[in-house]
Write a structure and sequence with these properties.
Elements (H helix, E strand, L loop, with lengths): L2 E8 L3 H15 L3 E5 L4 H7 L5 H9 L2 E6 L14 H12 L3 E7 L12 H4 L3 E7 L7 E8 L5 E6 L4 H16 L4 E6 L5 H17 L4 E6 H10 L6 E4 L1 H15 L8 E3 L6 E3 L18 H13 L4 H16 L13 H11 L1
Parallel strand pairs: 1-2, 1-3, 3-12, 5-10, 8-9, 8-10
Antiparallel strand pairs: 4-5, 4-11, 6-7, 11-12
Helix pairs in contact: 1-10, 1-12, 6-7, 8-9, 10-11, 11-12
The structure holds nicotinamide-adenine-dinucleotide, 3-isopropylmalic acid and manganese (II) ion.
């Protein structure tokens, strides 16, 4: 049956990298129907909101949604609900995609592009499972208040419930079964009640239902350090929304560039997934043809795997990206001079 893919190019380098995703889709010749909608700053400019109700409805009706990137200086002084980023948060919440898979794999050909020594990163294969629709990103109360003494207070609430923790932990344990079976759960249970509950509930679920999972716990500050000291100690890292955001950007540099890391955000089985490169709109290089499209194209591979159930095609896309890089085509972020378009061409040719 024809699968429906909704593309949301977004802002900055978003349209540049999703343009290359389209070329890969055309070359693959799969039974996929592709639609497109405005999103982020582009939607604010044209429609007055970062994501329209209609776009949310189209996303919920699709089999998968692939987003480029949102945000940029043009919209950075708006109140929060009028920002491109708010559109992304609304979409994640509406789709209820609570488990964000962010794989950080180091291609052997790129081990020298990493900020770390080759022997520390060669063969690296970490799967982050980041909680995506809760925690401090969504907790209430939130806002900026004027206090009587003339001070202002910025307020955000970090919170997790038992069920929010258990469903994402389940996703991590299920994924880890197909990997090494090792899960490291990361929080700050030493200073936060929400972190303590996280640790207790993750351990409880493991003891109740996943006796074969080898579960360890680590404080987030130590994890940030360990990722740079000895990243290959990790297999699956389960963590909350904010720590997962930061630790996955950190891990990107272990693989060579932020422009390489894809992600899949999944909810309940049968519901559409949301796929995005983990990088942003990169205003510093936008419009110059310098962006690496690999993260977006690898996100398409994750969509093909998780939402379209086509493991063969997903593997083909992943091997094509690796082959293009091995063949020497590299954008500037990974030490080359290729343009976004040339990188896309090399990947399409490798298919
Ligand atoms: P960023 O990820 O956009 O860029 C960080 C650095 O990485 C920049 O130097 C950029 O040039 C580089 N980079 C990122 N992607 C690249 C690629 N594909 N190829 C080559 N280099 C790449 O982060 P930022 O500068 O902190 O944020 C810019 C805007 O993007 C902000 O508005 C932010 O909110 C937004 N943002 C959006 C997303 C998203 O849409 N999912 C993610 C992160 C940041
Ligand atoms: C990401 C981004 C987003 C996040 C922003 C743009 C809302 O940084 O996808 O990693 O913080 O989740
Ligand atoms: Mn991020």
């Amino acid at each position: 049956m024809t699968k429906q893919l909704l593309l949301l190019p977004g802002d900055g380098i978003g349209p540049e990298v999703t343009g290359q995703v389209r070329r890969v889709l055309d070359a693959l010749d799969l039974d996929i129907e592709t639609g497109e909608a405005l999103f982020g700053g582009a939607a604010i400019d044209a429609e007055g909101v970062p994501v329209s109700d209609e776009t949310v409805a189209r996303a919920l009706a699709a089999d998968a949604v692939l987003m480029g990137a949102v945000g940029g200086p043009k919209w950075a002084n708006q109140p929060y609900d009028k920002r491109p980023e708010a559109g992304l948060l609304r979409l994640r919440e509406a789709m209820n995609v609570y488990a964000n898979l962010r794989p950080a794999r180091c291609f052997s050909a790129l081990a020298d592009a990493s900020s770390l020594k080759r022997e520390l990163v060669e063969g690296l294969d970490i799967m982050f499972v980041r909680e995506l629709v809760g925690g401090v990103y969504f907790g209430k109360p939130r806002g900026i208040e004027e206090l009587p003494d003339g001070e202002r207070r910025g307020l955000n609430t970090h919170q997790y419930t038992t069920s929010e923790i258990r469903r994402v932990a389940r996703a991590a344990f299920d994924l880890a079964k197909g990997r090494s079976g090792r899960v490291c759960s990361v929080e700050k249970s030493n200073v936060m009640e929400a972190g303590l509950l996280w640790r207790e509930e993750v351990q409880r679920l493991r003891d109740q239902e996943y006796p074969d999972i080898e579960l360890s716990h680590m404080l987030a500050d130590n994890c940030a350090m360990q990722l740079v000291k000895n990243p290959k100690q990790f297999d699956t890292i389960l963590t909350d929304n904010l720590f997962g955001d930061m630790l996955s950007d950190e891990a990107a540099m272990l693989t060579g560039s932020l422009g390489l890391l894809p992600s899949a955000a999944l909810g309940e089985p049968g519901k559409p997934g949301l796929y995005e490169p983990i990088h942003g709109s990169a205003p510093d290089i936008a419009g110059q043809g310098l962006a690496n499209p690999a993260a977006a194209i690898l996100s398409l591979a994750m969509a093909v795997r998780h939402s379209f159930g086509d493991e063969r095609a997903a593997g083909r896309i992943e091997r094509a990206v690796e082959a293009a890089i091995e063949g020497g085509t590299r954008t500037r972020d990974i030490g080359g001079e290729a343009t976004t378009e040339q990188m896309g061409s090399a990947i399409v040719q490798s298919l």
